[in-house]
Amino acid sequence: MLIQFQEYFTLENIYFWSNFGVLPFWALMLALPHSKITQILVNSIIIPLILAVAYVYVIYIAILTDEPILDIFKLYFNLDNLYTIFATENFLLAFWIHFLALNLFLGSWVSRDGVKYNIPKKLVALPMIVIYFTGPLGLVMYWFFRIFYSKKLGFHD
């Protein structure tokens, strides 16, 4: 049974399902931010847990294939090391899952915060789409919108 599991969960399949698996949750946050279903599904531990399991599995595969796991810490020294690490499919996929999980977390925070401050969902939609592709830029965009709706400037919220 474990062999069948490993045959199905290839790096390509994990990449495919990770990418398309988060899309329904983004759609819920964009279309129905006030919905109880959105609050339950998006703001629960379900998706981070699934992405964490995929992340651990990818690292496990890297260990099985004798990838130099500790070389990952070299990425902080220069861009060449970062390029070398990203040339390895296991590490590239692990970082991609990391990116998807963090952007989904950031998107869910923006969605909840927009509901909290009664910001129109059409106005929150633009930063949310930008967050999906480039997290920090969308966060700054949302922050500017939020200043006008919350009537306060806060750097620590």
Q: What is the H-and-E element order?
A: HHHHHHHH
Give the biggest beta sheet.
none
The unreliable regions are none
The number of E-state strands comes to: 0
| General shape | globular
Instruction: Report the total helices.
Output: 8
The overall pLDDT, averaged over residues, is 88
Distance between the termini: 48 Å
Strand-residue proportion: under 5%
Proportion of residues in helical segments: over 70%
Q: By helix and strand content, what is the structural category?
A: mainly alpha
What's the structural domain tally?
1
Radius of gyration: 18 Å
How are the SSEs placed, and which strands pair?
Elements: H1 2-8, H2 11-31, H3 36-42, H4 46-64, H5 79-86, H6 89-116, H7 121-133, H8 135-150
Would you give an account of this structure?
With 157 residues, this protein is an all-alpha fold. The protein has one domain (25-150). The chain is 76% helix and 0% strand. It contains 8 helices and no strands. It has helices at 2-8, 11-31, 36-42, 46-64, 79-86, 89-116, 121-133, 135-150. Helix 2 (11-31) runs antiparallel to helix 3, helix 4 (46-64) packs antiparallel against helix 6 (89-116) and helix 7 (121-133) runs antiparallel to helix 8 (135-150). The model has no long low-confidence stretch (mean pLDDT 88).
